[in-house]
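Entry 14. Two folds queued back to back today. First construct below, sequence then structure tokens.
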Amino acid sequence: MRLVRAEGLTHAFPGTGPLFTGLDLVLRAGEVVGLVGPSGSGKSTLLSVLAGWVTPLGGRVERIGIDHTGWVLQNPHGVARRSTLDHVVLPLLARGRRRVDAEDEAMALLARFGLAAAAARPFRALSGGEAQRLMLARAVATAADLLLVDEPTAQLDLRTADTVNDVLAGIAQEDAVVVVATHDPRTRDACTRVVDLADHQSAPVGP
């Protein structure tokens, strides 16, 4: 069994009110859970809490069967001179693949994200959308048990965004917990389940 269970999560930054409060979640492998809400509602912060990288002010997070967490940032970061292919090959080599097998598997992953033609290009030569898709392909190559994705389609055209949404659904079906923070209504609709953080904010205090 692979799942993440959160109970009574509350978090705020110093000098601010709670981003979210009293949040209960059960995230299971096989589903893609979308986190939605207005800017500043705590979507990216909640991803960090679920990963165990930020300790919430209140509540607890239990991770069951989660040995490896993958994170895809909204603003992709790579090694400027390293090729697109190498970015995906390296995590496969770290998992024990032979070089020739890793390159074949990496090329297949790049093809899934429409990046096969860019395999030899250095990271610095990629467009913003290509770099974002590359980080998703690299995350898939790590075989994460918990995959956290921040605004995966923000820089993509509609057709490419649909492809990315389909791939994320496939990752979940491969026994991973997938959580996506998004403003994109098409990505929201593609999720198995949606959590709206606007429903977990404290009520404003009256005069």
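Second construct, same run, same settings:
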Amino acid sequence: MTPTKNARRSHHWRHDLIELAALFTAVVVADTIAKTIAKGPDGPYLLVFSAIALVATAAFHTWWARRHSHAPPVDDPGGSGGTPLPPAVRAGADPVGAPAGTALWRMRTTVRDTPGSLAALCTVLARHGVDILTLQTHPLAEGTVDEFLLRAPATLQTSELSRAVAAAGGSDTWTERADAHDLVDTPTRVLGLATRTALDAAELPLALRQLLGRCTIHSVPPVSLAGRPTGEPAPVEGVLEETVMRLRDPNGGTIVVERPYLPFTPTEFARARALVELDARLGPRIPRSRDVLTLPEGNEITVRRADQRDLPAARTMHDRCSGRTLGLRYHGPVGDADRYLDHLLNPRFGRTLAVQTASGRVVALGHLLWDGEETEVALLVEDDWQRRGIGSELLGRLVALAEEAGCDSVYAVTQSSNTGMVAAMRALNLPLDYQIEEGTLVITARLSGRRDTVSEAAPDATTQTPADTPAARRAGH
């Protein structure tokens, strides 16, 4: 560091000496000229006119420099010369988390594939005080889909933002609220989803939903519960049809992904197909973690994940259950109960928890089932093990899994006479909605701490009245 300081000090001394020499030289020259002119007959007048000319020249140079300066004005950090930014934006923001007075948004819009289209869009966003955190581009045959993660002033309305984007050449604009989890860059997020899928087969539908945004995912089995074929399976390479993609399910059947308000891009289709291919290569798998609990009377039980490999034990438990218990669980003929088990234990349709005794006998099952954008919970506890807190324990764990998966609510369909299920739902201490029709009761629990997403381009896809939810439609049946 010492040589650097000495070099700078010597540089400053040289600079000062040069300026001092130039000043003395200018004084000598000016004195010589003044004496020469002053000796003439019009010397004083020439000196006055020279001074006026010098002042005018200096004033013109100052005005010209200010008018054509390349430095951006104070109120326009981007140097665009447009509308000044809001004071909160000029003051700066915390680059780590969203500061007070701002909101995170995901926005997708389509622009022409021409030079300057993206620049015009970014300029408009900057004029509204919007900070672009991430950007993805999805090339299409005509145009390009740009997907942004934005930090905008909290006072900025989505309608105003959409109008500004449209004025800049954007079309088919779609926005939704985002949170801190969306700050992760796309490659990292995709790798995280692939890891979750590799560890648990039940994660594939959730991974697809998080990868593609708000969408509806249906797993269509090759045959229905009645044994009839459900249609031709999707080809190995899958099918992309605007707002619908069909992927071949490794377990048989088809995975149908629908997003009516926003067409899928080829890039999204390729990512979804890669996740499905990863699931197919890894085969059946579930986490093998086990929790040993002690009941009030001293008996130990084990709570673990279950899948189709537990089908024989589940059928044996069915044989030990009474007709009333099976009727409360399946809301139909008791003889049809076994037909549902293969479907319920399939990790493609949700997650299943099993309770087994110290001897290894399964005495209870709890299901968390994906139903489009809704999530259903269902319990079955063997008669001899009821009224011991097993159902409440299973329900609490299923709700925790639903919160972990990002679900906004869970619902249970039962009969109005099933006081045990009603009591277990009330014990969750969550806001509950009740709907009853012809003896069928639907109880919906609203999970706290979930983000509220909004899609301006498709209000029907994000706003449902209680009477239009899948749970309500099932209650009507």
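Quick look at the second one. The chain has four domains: 14-67, 88-183, 188-282, 297-306+316-476. The chain has a mean pLDDT of 76.
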